[in-house]
Amino acid sequence: MGILQTYPHIFRALESNLGNLYNSEIHRCKQEAMDRLTAMGMPNRKMERWRHTSPLPFYASELNPSFSPLHRKHVGIHDFNRKDEINAHKLVFVNGSYQEHLSKVYTEAQGVTICSMNEALTKHSEHITPHLKEICRNPHDGFNLLNLAFFGDGIFIKIPKDTVLERPIHWIFLAADNARFMINPYHQIHCGANSKVQIIKEYQSLDNSELYVNSHCSTFLDQGAHLEFTMIQNETVNGFHHLNNHIVQQKRDSNFKQTAVSLAGRLLRNQVFVRLQEPGANCAIQGLYYGKGDDHVDNRITVKHLSPDCESHQNFKGLLDDKSTAVFNGRIYVEEDAQRTNAFQSNKNIILSDYATVHSQPQLEIYADDVKCSHGATSGQIDQDALFYLVSRGIPLDQAKAVLNYAFIAEITEKISLPTIREHIQELMREKLNYAWDEELTES
Amino acid sequence: MTRDEAIIKKHTEDGYKYGFTTDIDQERAEIGLNESTIRFISDKKNEPEWLLDWRLKAYDIWKKMENPDWAHLNIPVIDYQSISYYASSKKKKYKSIDEVDPEILKTYEKLGIPLEEQKMLAGVAVDYVMDSDSVFTTFKEKLSEAGVIFCSISEAVKEYPDLVKKYLGSVVPQRDNYFAALNSAVFSDGSFIYIPKGVRCPMELSTYFRINAENTGQFERTLIIADDKSYVSYLEGCTAPKRDENQLHAAVVELVALEEAEIKYSTVQNWYPGDKDGKGGIYNFVTKRGICEGNRSKISWTQVETGSAITWKYPGCILKGNNSIGEFYSVAVTNNKQQADTGTKMLHLGSNTRSRIVSKGISAGNSSNTYRGQVLIGPNAENAYNFSQCDSMLMTDRCGAHTYPYLDIKNNSAQVEHEATTSKIGEDMMFYCNQRGLSDEEAVNLIVNGFCKEVFNELPMEFAVEAKKLLEVSLEGSVG
User: Fold this and answer.
1) Is A79 or B202 the better-scoring residue by pLDDT?
2) Which residue of chain A is at minimal alpha-carbon distance from B387?
C-alpha cells in the first residue's frame, strides 16, 4: 500500500500551514499521531473489523488528505435550507470548513460554548489536548490516527452544568464546488452535569462533489447529562464516503440517545463506541438505513458496560434494494463487576431485491453473571399475509409494499423526540419509498 | 456461602476421574515435523504413492500458513517441532478379544466400557482407536452383510482406494485451515464408513478415541459417505488420561451425504481439561464438516463438549443439494480455566435448504465459553430458512459467555432468525427447588439438565445417559 508512505510527506509539507498552532501542544499531538500511524499502518480487508467493508476507496492516490482549509469562505451558497427551517443554532460547514456567514449561533445561558474547532483550538485548547493525547495512545485503527494527524475544522460544544439548551444545535455539512478530496474533521462535545442538549447533524451534497470524510467525535456526558444526537445522511449518489467515529463516555445516570438515518451514500461506516463508566448510565443507539444502487452501509456499535446497573439498547432496521449491502456489527461487552446489567440488541433487515446483501453480527461478550442480555437478528421479506390483506382491500400492490416498508422503519423514526426532525425524516422516507401519503386520510 | 465453598473445594480438588496411563509398548516417530516424518508415517502404513503426495502437498501448504488468532481464545504458542506425530501399539490386529493387550482392556474397563458388556449392548459396533491405530473391530461381519463398510481409514486406503481417493479432502480440502492442513499432512488413523445405496445401517456405529502416549498429538481423520437413500448414525466419544504437558489434537471429520441420504453424527467429548489452575489439558482443534451433496439429504451434528483445555471446533454443513437440511445441536460446558470457542457454519447453496442451530453454553469457574457461528445464504439459495438459538448460562461472576453470530444473506427470499440470551441460574428457581427438598447440588443439576434438554433429546439413548452424567460431574459444586 503505497499511500501510507505518502502520508508523512504530505504531513511535513502541510505542517507550515498550521499558522499560530505551529510548534504548539496540538502540533506535537499531530506529529505523534503521524509517527504512530507510520508504525501501525492503515486497515485492510484482511482485518476482521474490515472484512465486509473495504477501506480501499479512501486510499485512492489523488485523495491526499489535507488540513481542512482554514476559514475558506464560500460565497455562492445561500439556498440550501429546507422550507421548514427549524429554530436552532445553525452551524454550517462547506467541504469541511466552517462558514460563519451562513451560520447562526444565538446567545445562550452563561458559559455555553458552541463554536468551530478552529476557534476552540486557540481559545479552549486546554479542553482539547488531553483528549487528543488519549486517542493517540489508544487508537481504534489507522483512520483514527489519520484523523488526528490531519484534522482541521470541526465543532466544539461545551455546556455547563444544570443548563438546558433552549434551541437544538443544527449542524450542517455541505459538499460543494464539485470537490473531490478527503477531510478529517475532529469534534468534541462536553455535556456538563444535569445538562440537556439536542444535536442534529445533517449531510447534504449540492452538486456532484465527492467528499471522503474521516471524522472523529469525542463526547463526554457528566452525571445526569442528557444528549440526543440525530444524524441524517442523505446525499446524492456520489456525495460522501463516510467513516464516522463517535466515542461516547458516560458518567452516572447520564442518558445518551443516537439515531443514525442513512438514506444514501456510497460508503457509510458509522462506528459508535460507548463506555458506560458509572452506575445508572444508559444509552440507546438506533438507526435505520435504506440502501439503493451500490450503497454500502456499515454500522458498528460497541457498548461497554464497565459499571453495574447500566442499561443499553441497540436497535437497527434496514431496507436493502438493488445491489446494496448492509453490515451490522453490534457488540455488547459486560465487564466482570458490571452486575445487574440490562443490554439489548436487535438488527432487522428486509431484502427487496435479488442482489442485495446483509452481513449481520450481533455479538455478546459477557463476564458478569447477573445480567440480562439478549440479541436478535432477522432477515426476510415483506410479510406476504399482510401484503395480501392490504391488496385485498383495494390498495395497489406498490402502495401496499410502501405502506409495509414504511411501517417497518417507523419504529425507529417514532423515537426521535424533536417533532420537526422526526417529520422531516418521515417525509424523506416516504419520498424514498414512493409512498403517496394522504394527509387527509390520516387526519380523519 | 461457606457450604457452597466447601462444595466447590470438594469438586475442584477432585482429580480427573479418567486420568490414568496405560503402559503398552509403543513405536513412535521421531519428535518433530518435516518431510521425512511424513514419509515415515506413510511408509509405516504402507500407503500408496498418491496418498504420500497428497500428504506432502498438505505439508507444503501448512508451512505457508499461520496459526489462526481470530478466535476468542488464549492459545499458548505450540511448538510443532516438539511433538511426536506417530505412535502405535506394536501388536496388531486381533481376531478375538483374548488376543488384545490386557492393559488396553483394563483401560476400557476403567472408562466403564468393558468390551464384554459392549458386545452385549444393543448392537453397538465399536471401532476402538487407541492412539493412532485401530486395534479391534467388532460386528464387522454383521455390517458387511448389509454391505456397510466400517473400517479404519488406513485399511480403506488399501481396500477401497477409489472411494477414498474420490472423497478424501473433498469436504475439508488441505488448504481449508491451519489445523486441517496439519492433519492432512500427518493424519494417523481414523474411521471410514461407506453406506451403500438404499441401506439403512442396521446399528449405531461408534468409535472411542483415546489419547494415550505422552507427547503424542493425535491426528484423526474420519470419512463417512452415505450413498443415495441411505442412513447412518455415528457416535464418537472420548476421555483421555491425565497429563501435565498439553496435548494437541487436530482431527478432521468429513461427511458426504448423497441424494436423500441422512447422516447423524454425535459426539461426547470429555478430554482432560487441565487442573483447576489451567495446567495441562488437551488442545482440541477440530475441523468437522459435512456436505449435503444430493437433493433432499440431511446432516445432523450433535455435540456435548465438556472436556479439553482449549476447544476450537465448528462442525458445519454445506447445503448444496436442493431441499437439503442441516442441523447443529450443541452443549458446551467450561469450568475452571477452560476455554471454548465453538459453533457451526451453515452454508446454504441449494434452494429450499433449511438449517437449525441450537447451542447451549454453560460457563463456570474462570472459564470462557464462546459461540461463533456463521449462516450464509448464497445468491441461488431460494427460500432458504435458518433458525438459530444460542443460550448461555453463567454459573459464577468470574466466567465469560460470548456470542458471535455471523449472518451473511445474499438472497431476498431467505428467512433467517437468530436469537440469543444470557442468564444465570435464578435465585427463585433455586429457592423453588430447595423448598421442595432438593439440595443445591441437585437443584443445579435439575436446572442445567432442563436447560440442555433440547440437545440431549437429539442424542442416541446410551449417549444421552452418558452425557447427562458427564454434565453432572463437570459442574459438580460449581455454583456459588
Assistant:
1) B202
2) A378
